[in-house]
Structure formats: C-alpha cells, structure tokens
Amino acid sequence: MTGRTSERYNPRVEEPRWQKAWDEARSFVLEPGDTREPYYVLEMFPYPSGRIHMGHVRNYTMGDVLARYKRARGFAVLHPMGWDAFGLPAENAAMQNKVHPKSWTYANIATMRNQLKSIGLGIDWTREFATCDVEYYSKQQKLFLDMLREGLVTRRQSKVNWDPVDMTVLANEQVVDGRGWRSGAVVEQRELNQWAFKVSDFAEDLLDALDGLEQWPEKVRTMQRNWIGKSEGLRLLFELDAPHGDFSSIEVFTTRPDTIFGASFVAISADHPLAKALSEQPAVAAFIAEAHRQGTATETIDKAEKLGVFTGLHVKHPVKPGATLPVYVANFVLMDYGTGAIFGCPAHDQRDLDFARRYGLPVVPVVLPEGADPAEFEVDAEAYTGPGRIYHSEFLDGLEVETAKKKIAGYFAARTVDNRPQGKVEVNYRLRDWGVSRQRYWGCPIPVIHCESCGIVPVPDKDLPVVLPEDVTFDRPGNPLDHHPTWKHVVCPSCGGAATRETDTMDTFVDSSWYYARFTAPHADTPTIPDVANSWLPVDQYIGGIEHAILHLLYSRFFTRAMKKTGHLSLDEPFKGLFTQGMVVHETYKDASGEWLSPADVTISGGDVRTATHAATGAPVEIGSIEKMSKSKKNVVDPDEIVRTYGADTARWFMLSDSPPERDVQWTEAGIEGSSRFLQRIWKLVGDALELFDVPAGAPDMADAETAAIRRLVHRTVANVGAEIEGLRFNRAVAQIYELSNGLAKFIAATAAAPTAGRIGALHEGIERLVQLVAPMMPHLAESCWAALGKTGMVCDAGWPEADPALLVDASVVLPVQVNGKRRGEVTVPKGSPNELVEREALSLEAVARMLEGKSPRKVVIVPDRIVNVVV
RNA sequence: GCGGGCGUGAUGGAAUGGUAGACAUACGGGACUUAAAAUCCCGAGGGUGUACACCCGUGUGGGUUCGAGUCCCACCGCCCGCACCA
C-alpha cells in the first residue's frame, strides 16, 4: 500500500514513531552469534554535565552516519554509548547545590540519554554504562591490582602540581600555562606519596607504534611524538676539583658530547641536590628562592632571562688536562629532565650562549659549517646548531658531528670517575609516569590498604569492589573519603591488625582509558572477555575532539598495552582509525552595555550589511566575533530547542553540510532553515513521484535521453556517496545528494509531462535510491519516505544499493580543448577515441583555427578522455 | 623559537597536475498569491563589448610543466599545538 505525502513532513510525529520502531525491532542491538563481519564505530563518550550541546550532536551524528552506513553494507556494527561520569563537577555541584554527586550524575545521565535518543542515534543501548557504576569501577580496581602485580604501578614520593582551589593534584598535562586546567588557579608544588602508572616503560613502543597508525591525523601523531620527546645522548660525569660534602662529581645529560671541547661551564638546576647542599651560601639560597618564585609564574617563559649564580665550585675539564670549568646554579636547567645538570657549550646552544654572554664566559666554536673558513668563523649573537665538521677539538678534529658523538661516547665509556664509567649512552624521554592519585571523593577508589606493620597491602580480589560510601559530606575542603568517620578503617588482609584504606581515588582519565574495551562485554564479571574484546578491537573508527590528542589517546594506548600484559586483551593499539572533528561555532552578540546576548534574544536583519537588534527592546546589538559555543559568551543554541522546532533530521543534516567535518562549522539560522527546506523537499519529491506511480512501471528505456541521464546520475551518486561516507567527507556526500535531488526534480517534471512505463520504472529506482542514500543522515525522514513508497520493512534494514558499473561510464566524453593551456572550446567524442580522431576534431574547432592563424601547431597534448591542449 | 595546518566569489566551501568556483547560504529578478510565507523558474567572480567573443582572476613574488588553486623556492597573513627538554 502506498501513502500520499501531500502534507508537510512533521518530524514531531514521525521521529518519535521511528525511534520507537527501531527500539522495538532491536535494530541496533547486537545479538550473540552474529556472523557478519564486525565493525566498531565509537565516538568519545560524553561527560554527563547536564545537557547535550551542539558539539555532541555533531560528534554523534558523524559516528551514526558511518555506523548506519556500515550496517547497511552488511557489517555487524558495534556502536555503543556510555558516560564518563566521575569527576570534579559533580563534587562542585554537591558543594554548591547540596546535592549528592551520585544523584546529580545519574539525573544528568537520564536527561542526556533522552536527548541523545531524540536525535535518533543507532546505538546499542543494551551496552550502556557509566564509569561511576560499581559494576564498571570495580573492574577497573581489578585492572589496577593486576597492573600492580605486573609492576606497572608504582608509589613514590614525588613533587606534584597542587591546585589550591580544587584542592587536588594535577597531572602535568592538566597544568596549562602554570594554571589548573579546570580551576584556572595558579598551581603550587607539593611533595606527596603518589600512585603512578609506569607509562614510561612503554615510551619507546608508544613512539615507534605511531608510525603504524596510518589512519590517524598526522597532526595528532606529531603531537604525541613531541610529547614523548625522545632524545638520545650521553650521561657524563664531571669530577669536582675538590669534593664538596658528599659530592665528588656532577652528572650531566647531553645530546651534544661532540662539543665537549667547547664547554665553558657546568650548570645545575635550582632543585639539584648539590644546589640544596650549597644553599648555606646566602647568594645561592637567594637565587634558589627566586627561581622557585619565578617557576610558578611561567607565562613569561620565552622572555625569561638566563640567570645563574656562581657556586664557587669547579669541575675538572674532562678532555683538557689541568683545565677546570666553573659550576653555576642556573634558572634554565630543569630538575626533572635528564640529570638536572648540563655542561654549557655556548657556541652551539642558544641558551648557553645567552648565559655565557651575560656572565662573560668563553665562546669557543668547535663545529665548522660546511664551506666556512676556520680562521674567520665566529659565533656572535646566534649559536650555530647545524651540521659540520669538528675542529679545535684535538682527537675529534675533522669528524662529522654524528661520527664525533660516537667517538667521544666511546672515549668516556672507557674512562672512570667515582669508580663508574665516565660516560654512558642514554635515551631520555620527556614522557613522565602518570600520577593517578587524586584527593577527591567522586572517583574510583584505589584498592589498597595501608598497614603499619605490613606496609602497602593490595585489597585481595575477593574483597572487591571497594565501594564508595554514599554518606559523605562536602562542607569542608579536602577529601570527603578522608573525613568519613568509618570508611577508611579496616582490618589488614595480611596480618589482621588495624589498618586504613587508601583514600585517594583515581584520575578520571583512567576511567576513559579502557571503556572502549568494556563495551565489547559490558556486563561481564571480568573487565573484559578477552576473546570477545579481541574480536571487536581495535576500534575501526574513533571520532572525537582534537583536545584529546595527547592525554586521553596516549593513556588509552598505554592501557591497551598494560591490559595485554595482564591478559585482558591481546593487542597494542586501541584505535585503528581516528578522526578529530571541528567545533561548532556561532556569532557572538553584545548589547550597548557590553553584556553578552543569547542568539535567541537577538533579531538579525539581512541585506548587504547585517544588523542586529534586541528582540524584546529593539535596542541595537553589536555582532561580534565567531566563537566556540560557550555558556560564558551565551552564543549557544540548545539542541532540544532545535529538535523541537525543526526535528532531529534537520539538525543532523545541517551538522553534516557545508563544512568539512574536521573543520569548525558555524551554526547559523539560515543554515538550519536551509536544511529544513531540503528535508521538506525530499518529502515533496517522494510525494510528487507517488502521484505518478499510478502509471505501471516498466523496464527503463535507455534510448530515452531523459531516462538514460537520470539513471546515470542515480548510479553515479550511489557510488560517490558511499565513497564519501567511507572517507568521512560528509559535506561532499551532502552535495552529491543535493545534485541528485535537483536531477530527480527535473526528471519528475519531464515524466509528468510524458509518462511512459520506462520512465516510471526509472523514477521508482531513482526515488528509492535517494531515500536509501539519505537514510544514514536523516534516518527518520528516510523511514517515513520508505513507508510512503509502500516498501515493506524499514529502510535501515534495506541494505546499501549497488551502483551498476555500466552506468558509471558515459559512451561519449566532452573534452575541453585548450590552446596554450587556456580553454578555447570543447569536443564531444566517443569514450576511448584514438588520439588521431581527437586531434582532428580539436584542430577543426573554429576557435582553435583562429588561434593558430593558419600555422600548424607545435605540439598537441592529448590526455585520453580528459583534455586536449594545442601548443602554438 | 620549534612543529603542524590554512589562505579560492558576499558567505560556508568544491576541484586524482587537466573546463576554477560543484553544492549550499545570502542576494537580485520573475511566476503563483489580495498580500505574505511556502513553492517553482532565471541571474550572478571582476572587467571590455550589441552579439560571436576577448582580457583579468585562487594571499604576494619567482620557478617547474604542453598545462599550476594543486608541485618547488622565497615572502606576507591567519589558526592550532609544544615551548628554557640540554
């Protein structure tokens, strides 16, 4: 039975109807025993902050289009959804609104789940979980204990970044320009006992494996490479000419041991143990204090001058017998990289040069650039860091830099200082171990117990989970778990004596480092079912924001390796394909007093110069810059409002149109209106076609020019849209669909004027294909159209249409004809015509003859079936 | 400073080294309408010209090529990331 579609399409009725139908048919639920080829699409799961924003809509729409497309292509598509539900905002809400973090979080999840369902995502909701579910975080505790057993977790006294506002420790990655990434407060340094994951154990592998991640953006791979920051160099001992207390030598790290003959000083960090030992000297103590003060205000780092203080100590020059080098404490030497000490070769390092100029130290060039005159070459204001040959360096003279590095490394390896080899080749990484202890309540409890007699005792597996207590209070700063009257007091599992629980919880980045694996067996009693995880992983296509390029992705890569080592899965890389989508941006508006205004309160009038007025008062409004949607600038558009007004399909379509998905998309009223019009246009096309379907369909007659043209367009579009979706080029897929709908509108007009059975047959084909192509993007509309066309079953189960290869190639081709590279005309020739024929046709063009002025061409370049260029 | 990316109509953007501006938005004109909305049709990079047509045009300047938005070099501008990493 076919329905008429003369009414306007009403998403408010149709969308809930199809969402219910998919739900009841369990269309996107993966049942056990599925034999289809697996494909895993995952979008970064949301933090349940309260409401969905447009960025979510864009992110999840992209994933959904791919998931629905792959499903139509016959894959068993895993497309799950969950909640990254631990974290500070819940505690902040608890403090501000006197609501428990748990009820706040689950209420937000309920709201946001409904919002996500309202945009029609093809999600397997049976797999949903939140990281704050006991079922989830208890498995995470199991992972932690397994990793502890494997030596992948350590506990160490370490200096940590302390956020004085959030009263918690921050990872280095969470400190942005010296401030807490969430609170914005200036970060202090504190010494605490911290649990840490030994990410650095995998530094080399995490770096090397980046080369294999071919479906990741180059940008992200580069950022991770830089973050890991590998450098190969030499640890080198400088012997003090006279011991100072316990110190008889200083160990430095250098990547340029080849420049040792140009050394003119040694510098140590203000945090170096020797610096502390020297702080009995007032000048040194003052300098260290000043360095610490500077260290916390790092915004001026590039302007910071290279400052130091002479310690009065000297070291023996390691290759110049009898010579010594002065030892400084310097503000530009970092304690947590290398050994916290360097030797300075001013001629070949800019920082050393700045320092040397300031303190009047010698500048001796020892690397001579190719072609430079050794008698003339000088270093003035700029250090020379390029390649060249070593000179002024005795036994290294004449060697290339790299060769000299090897030779000098061998030289120092063979000598001893303090009964150790003087030099040792070493690889250094910037990558630090990942400190995961957080002094917060709303996180996964770290499952260990502190016992006075037994020390650190892991919670036995049988005692898991360590459940967060619910009766906590937030009326004072610090960790509520620590304040809790009873929770932390336990019996030691080892000796049975009185002991206390660890009250730190895990960094929430731990929660999101393995959730993709949990989705493969979300209800299992173990963290994963390894066989099942291995069959689904890696995630074929992961989609999310560029802001996670380093932290989340690096930690997840570490976690898969750790989970492999602890037997929970057997692969290294979690995400085969990664796509980083752009943000949703919007104009900003300000009234005369400089207050931000919401787009909903602003009326825009068009014309050549757009102007804005306040909707209620008519007062003039200034149209400001285009910014990421944010509450503070009020330039947000509420997805609920859009779904209510236009429907989910319109919002989805707009999110996919126009802008390439990796770039920012600007939300505009005109854009959403345009999408809405297009949705109605498709509905109308289907209705117009239905008007004609009283005429029985016959086999399309390819002799009819209109029929042949539309069929070519239909099949070409089928082929192209599929390819564009595979490549996540949704904006180009959208453009293709626009072209098809324009073509079909014309064909409907032609068919209405002269309906033949053959044309009706071609129209059936064209309209059905259009609906199928639109289905991943506007799934509700497509279902309504499919039903209206009288098709049985749902379009989401109809599979993906195949393009007929015969219709993808034209019998004849139009070749542009250029003269000297400028287009002067065109010739139409049969496809695959011999060059002689093409040349004859091209030269016979009047425009070409005119340009030739009777002469014969110097050359005729013919690219078969592409172009002709006549060179005069 | 180092690394990565980008620069095309009024706007978002298309364009395996091969017809620059697909597709959309905004705009202008027309049809329908009492009117508006919706819908449909037409126009449109800049310039010269009655037309056929021609000239110019992808940030700037060079280069490679039969042919350059695309490749190479230099420069200008914007965006992003990292940033005293020895």
Walk me through this protein's architecture:
The protein has 872 residues and is an alpha+beta fold. It contains 26 helices and 37 strands. The structure holds one RNA strand of 86 nucleotides.
Write the layout of secondary structure elements.
Layout: H1 11-25, E1 38-43, H2 54-72, E2 76-78, H3 88-97, H4 101-118, H5 134-149, E3 153-163, E4 168-170, E5 175-176, E6 179-180, E7 188-197, H6 203-208, H7 218-228, E8 231-244, E9 247-254, E10 265-268, H8 273-277, H9 282-295, E11 308-316, E12 324-330, E13 341-344, H10 350-359, E14 367-368, E15 389-390, H11 401-413, E16 416-417, E17 420-421, E18 423-428, E19 434-435, E20 437-438, E21 448-451, E22 455-458, H12 480-483, E23 489-491, E24 498-501, E25 505-506, H13 508-511, H14 515-518, H15 530-536, E26 541-545, H16 551-565, E27 578-581, E28 584-590, E29 596-597, E30 602-605, E31 611-614, E32 620-628, H17 639-646, H18 648-656, E33 665-666, H19 669-692, H20 705-726, H21 730-753, H22 757-774, H23 779-788, H24 805-808, E34 812-819, E35 822-830, H25 835-843, H26 846-852, E36 859-863, E37 867-871
Parallel strand pairs: 1-2, 1-26, 10-12, 26-27, 28-33, 34-37
Antiparallel strand pairs: 3-4, 3-7, 5-6, 7-19, 8-9, 8-18, 10-13, 11-12, 14-15, 16-17, 20-25, 21-22, 21-24, 23-24, 28-29, 28-32, 30-31, 31-32, 34-35, 36-37
The structure holds one RNA strand of 86 nucleotides.
